[in-house]
Write a structure and sequence with these properties.
heterodimer, B: elongated
Chain lengths: ~350, ~300
């Protein structure tokens, strides 16, 4: 009992720390993904914006969905949400609590991606290079170009090693300007996220502590109940399988005895246990037949008391099982061959 | 009993050491963040000050809030502050003690960031290069006002084509760097002296109150942990009973419907317990379907 309790407590605390661990790993993975990703700005007027904003916004969305997929509790939430009411009422507060805690954890990796992207600056530099204020920052002696040509020249700013220097605006000035804006946005974003997290965490005890305790208890309860039910079903399945297989072997040996029309040999008294374990199958031919029968026609998923020979008609090969259900018996005696 | 005591002591020491550990990790994280952050001053007249001071002060706020969020005791303190009085009086000294210990720990990472920023110097050079007096530096002395603002703003950017290898630029940069480092070291010295005095002089004032406050703040922390543990234990037992009742009611139903007499007791104990009288594929399917469609009520009386 003590061991059970310790294991359960470990699991209980472990589930939360396991989830936090996955959360942290995903945040690290998103940083690693960003640094491994080879950013290639297209340097063409309309493509820059699409590419830059795409890299800024699409991977966070993917990471958010991945955060939900990797979370084991999502199936628990879905099950609790969709189950028929039956004899047990449904509490929407519990569902909300479960969804909120999952969403909070799933938001961390996308927020890390967006922060790292903004603080690095490449995406914003690529996306908004055509919006640099040339009038204020441009060279004093810049040539007069049409609007389209200006756009083209500005779009090439992120690719300094490909295109030659242009006279419109100093490359470093434009890049520094865009980078400064990108980093300012990045820090503001991080500040906003942190403030939100702080507010969510600190306002809760002020307003709805009792409801929170209730929701937390019942969401843990649902989780534990599901695990215990799975365990109990596994135990049942084990016992079911054991009895089923024992009955199969007994059926086999009974059929063989009936088919060969000789009395079962009396086992010597002192070899009782070993003889019992052999289940009446004592030679190669019989064993082979048993194995073949196991493969060709597995027994029905129906346990029956093995008190009398049932004459199932499984002796010999290739005969299909004939009984749809076992005859009812008055006594139910299960051997336990442990 | 021994095991209980060991667990208690573990919890007691663990809370403090966990908090100190988090504090240290945040401080290291702030240094790492600073070194990996790519500081690039915009070198434009109006933007320099905002950027430089922003980089110096916004991350410390973020680190401070992180320090509060990651500290479990802040939640405990808030709950204790906001709880209805009920039958237990609230002791403000305990809440104040918890608040001050949380704040002290949360302040470490921001202070580390500010000190590292000042000792490195880039932020201050970026923020205040435009506020220098151009008369002090030969290269900027006889330049028109508008132009001098632009040039001063470009001082932090070493590679800018206008000021590359300009000795006046290096002079301004060095001057600001020196001020920045002096400020950084002074702040560090003042803070360490303050911490030293606070720790040394504390036993001279209100030691008894302090001991009481510390004891009761530990107590509140441990009480909450044990409450959560007991709730977990209770929900496990509740779930166990609930499932046992469910299987038992299934067994009753099957007995009722299949008109068999109950089996004799001998030799059935071992397997029967786990089989619950469910010995058929259809019965198992029915059990699983009932579990989904009609979960048992939350009542194990």
């Amino acid at each position: 009992m003590d061991k059970f309790r310790m294991i359960f407590q470990f699991f209980q605390s472990n589930q939360e720390s396991f989830m936090n661990g996955i959360c942290g790993i995903m945040a690290l993975a998103s940083t690693q993904m960003y640094s491994a990703f080879d950013f290639n700005c297209p340097c063409l007027p309309h493509y820059n914006l699409a590419y830059g904003l795409g890299i800024l916004l699409v991977p966070p969305f993917i990471l958010f969905l991945l955060g939900f997929v990797l979370n084991n509790n999502i199936s628990m939430l879905a099950e609790e949400w969709r189950r028929p009411q039956g004899q047990r009422g449904k509490d929407p507060a519990v569902l909300r609590y479960m969804f909120c805690s999952m969403a909070q954890r799933a938001m961390i990796a996308p927020a890390v991606w967006v922060s790292v992207t903004l603080l690095d600056g490449k995406c914003i530099t690529c996306a908004f290079s055509t919006s640099v204020p040339v009038e204020t920052l441009g060279n004093a002696s810049r040539p007069h170009l049409s609007q389209g040509e200006i756009q083209q020249v500005l779009a090439r700013i992120p690719c300094r090693d490909i295109y030659n220097r242009q006279q419109l605006i100093a490359n470093e000035v434009a890049v520094r300007y865009l980078r400064c804006i990108s980093q300012a946005l990045g820090w503001c974003f991080v500040l906003l996220m942190t403030t939100l997290a702080f507010l969510v965490r600190s306002l809760r005890p002020c307003f709805s502590q009792a409801a929170f305790l209730k929701s937390r208890y019942w969401s843990h309860y649902i989780d534990i109940e599901r695990k215990l039910f799975d365990e109990t079903c596994a135990e049942h399945a084990r016992s079911f399988a054991k009895v089923c297989i024992q009955q199969f072997f007994e059926g086999m040996s009974t059929d063989l005895v009936a088919a060969r029309c000789h009395l079962p040999r009396k086992a010597p008294a002192d070899a009782g246990e070993a003889a019992e374990k052999l289940l009446g199958i004592t030679d190669q031919g019989t064993m082979n037949m048993a194995l073949k029968s196991w493969h060709r026609c597995k027994p029905a998923l129906h346990l029956h008391p093995p008190a009398l020979p049932t004459g199932n008609g499984w002796a010999g090969e290739g005969q299909p099982p004939m009984h749809p259900s076992a005859p009812r018996r008055e006594t139910a005696a299960y051997y336990s061959w442990v | 009993m021994d095991r209980f005591r060991m667990i208690f002591q573990y919890f007691q020491s663990n809370s403090e050491s966990v908090m100190n550990g988090i504090c240290g990790l945040l401080a290291l994280a702030s240094v790492k963040m600073y070194t990996s952050f790519d500081f690039s001053c915009p070198c434009l007249p109006q933007y320099n000050m905002a950027y430089g001071l922003g980089i110096m002060f916004v991350p410390p706020i973020i680190l401070f809030l992180c320090g509060l969020i990651l500290n479990r005791q802040s939640l405990v303190m808030l709950e204790e502050w906001r709880r209805p009085q009920g039958r237990r009086k609230k002791d403000l000294a305990v809440i104040r003690y918890m608040c001050s210990s949380i704040m002290q720990r949360a302040m470490v990472a921001p202070v580390v960031w500010i000190v590292v920023t000042l000792l490195d110097g880039k932020c201050l050079i970026c923020a205040f290069s435009g506020s220098m007096d151009p008369e002090k530096f030969v290269g900027f002395a006889n330049v028109s006002t508008a132009r001098v603002q632009q040039l001063l703003a470009k001082v932090p950017c070493k590679d800018d084509e206008l000021l590359r290898n300009n000795t006046s630029r290096k002079a301004v940069s060095r001057y600001l760097h020196c001020w920045s480092q002096a400020l950084g070291w002074s702040i560090l010295l003042i803070l360490i002296i303050a911490a030293f005095l606070a720790r040394w002089l504390r036993p001279c004032f209100n030691q008894a109150t302090l001991l009481q406050a510390r004891h009761w703040s530990n107590y509140i922390d441990i009480e909450q942990k044990i409450f959560e543990e007991t709730c977990c234990e209770h929900s496990r037992l509740f779930a166990h009973k609930c499932i046992l009742h469910f299987f038992e009611s299934m067994r009753q139903e099957i007995k009722l419907h299949s008109f068999t007499l109950p089996g004799e007791g001998e030799g059935t104990e071992g397997e029967e317990d786990f089989l619950w009288g469910i010995t058929d594929q259809d019965q198992v399917n029915k059990l699983l379907k009932t579990w989904y469609y009609e979960k048992p009520p939350l009542d194990v009386s």
